[in-house]
Amino acid sequence: MNIRLPWSQLKEAFQGEWIELVAYDWKWGDAKPRWGIVRNHSADRQSLSKLIESSPAVEGALILYVGAALGAVTHEASAAAL
Questions:
Q1: Average pLDDT of the chain to the nearest whole number
Q2: Residues 4 and 10: beta-carbon distance below 8 Å
Q3: Beta-carbon neighbour count of residue 19 at 10 Å?
Q4: What is the Cα–Cα distance from 25 to 33, expressed in whole angstroms?
Q5: Is-contact 36 23, C-beta < 8 A?
Q6: Per-domain residue ranges for the chain?
Q7: H or E element: which one contains 6?
Q8: What are phi and psi of 66, to 5 degrees?
């Protein structure tokens, strides 16, 4: 894709998906980035990982889920189930 989009457009375009941001503006303490450039995206995190692995590495890239919070892990045993 490689188009710089503000968070409002990222949220609309990729709702319910995992995205790889290769450039972004995300200030410390903010809950979301102000804008980002998406290189890969998928509704499934494993599929996204495969896309990323087949692409050249980008320093500073991050993976982000766009949608409702998936919930926090509150116990080590719960984390093992993920």
A1: 87
A2: no
A3: 22
A4: 6
A5: yes
A6: 4-81
A7: strand 4-6
A8: -105, 105
Long-range contacts of 48-56 (CB under 8 A, 24+ apart): 48/18, 48/19, 48/20, 51/20, 52/20
| pTM beyond 0.85 | no
Q: Write the DSSP assignment of 15-76 as a string of letters.
A: TTEEEEEEEEE--TT-SS-SEEEEEEEESSHHHHHHHHHTS---TT-EEEEESS------SH
Q: Which residue type occupies 4?
A: R
**What would the pLDDT profile of 43-81 be if each residue is shown by its tens digit?**
999 999 999 999 999 999 999 999 987 555 555 554 455
The CA distance from 45 to 30, in Å, is 23
Tokens standing for 31? Answer: 């809950």
